[in-house]
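Quick start: what a row looks like.
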Amino acid sequence: MRQGNNTQVLTVVQMRAAEAALIARGASVASLMDLAGRGAGAYVDRIAATRKVTVLCGPGNNGGDGYVIAQYLRALAVPVCVIAPLPPKTGAASAARAAYGGEIIDGTPATLPRADVLVDCLFGSGLTRPIDSEVFALLAGLCERHHHCIAIDVPSGVDADSGVALNPEMPQFDLTIALGAWKHAHFAMPSAPLMGDVRLVDIGCAAMPDAAHLLQAPHLGTPAPDAHKYRRGLLTIVGGAMPGATLLSAFAARHAGAGYLRLIAGADPGPVPHDLVVSHDRPEQVLADKRIAAVLVGPGLGRDGIARERLHAALAAGFPTVVDADALMLLRSGRIIGAVTILTPHEGELAALERAFGLRGDGLKRDRALKLAAASGAVVVAKGPDTVIAAPDGRLIIAPRASTWLSVAGTGDVLAGIVASRLAVSKDALRAAAEGVWLHGQAAQIAGPAFAASDLADAVRLAVRGAL
């Protein structure tokens, strides 16, 4: 099998450039279509398991992929019905249709089949306007008449770059098979939940300049033979008026790799684990310790004058720092200089930071995160159901969809603790952010359904074990 760069997430323009590069190296549109179609056909065959399949083909090359899929299945004796409401408009699609040896129907209401598997090859990536109402009604009607629905590349009616659903009331798919490279819509809201599971067919695309990349499982490794608590990293957490959130961060950080945790309490935290060192001294005094590897400020900080002073002390200390929660709302404009910094905003905090740094706050989430990273000099973890990680130098990491059970209070505090712990270990902001987001998602899988934030923090240790 051809091996391409299977972590990159491409825009439509980048995908076209990747295909053009393959053609320049000797491939043809027809050969790429055959490679993609046969790869997708193999997935469809495994799901169909000899049951009836309907392939809905559109006029472009996505429709051409559909004819290849149908021919692949037909050769395996899988019963196939091809519906083509529109004639091919590209040479490659026309050739693929001519090569298909089975019957093709036009999809009038009287001829709509009922079958087990529907394969949507109506329109793929590149669509920027709503599908004609009659054609969209055909797609929706077929989805209702099939037990399993599979989209090829992206579901028809979805903008591949933005993840916007161009048609209202989009049908739900069980599987989406990306061709050649991941597209941003595979992971972006609001369309990502419509796609079901996602799989990728490799056609050999090389790495594209400025491409985003999909978050990968890290290899954390074990402590060095000569490791001790300071070499593994002293993480100092600056607490505030609400100790509950601070302690959630600390409990998660305990399991994420740092060798030593110290909490500068802003209020009485109550009983704490014996291995969490609590200081009631002024932050300036505690943060004078040159052995500190990283600082976390924000969870439970509050937003009053005392909170501002504690935030200023944390940033002025000059250590690698994670800024989360209340601290994000207190930041003022100006590039963050003198330390490795990670900002971890949710949507509301992202908007507040954009105002603070004089940014317009419009456009796609990934673009907003990149602009904030460039303006602030910090790595930005724009968290949510479609988390992205942006670096000041323009690097962008896209996180896959995580458990929807993360939509509970306190999970952001847990994420901040994990990221800060990893920052104490590596001192590398982008690496720590990526490791933290991955461990957070894995911990959610381990915790199972209906967990609380404290359960999530407990599951971090097992998530780390899975990355060793």
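That is the whole record. The chain has 15 helices and 19 strands. The longest strand covers residues 115-121.
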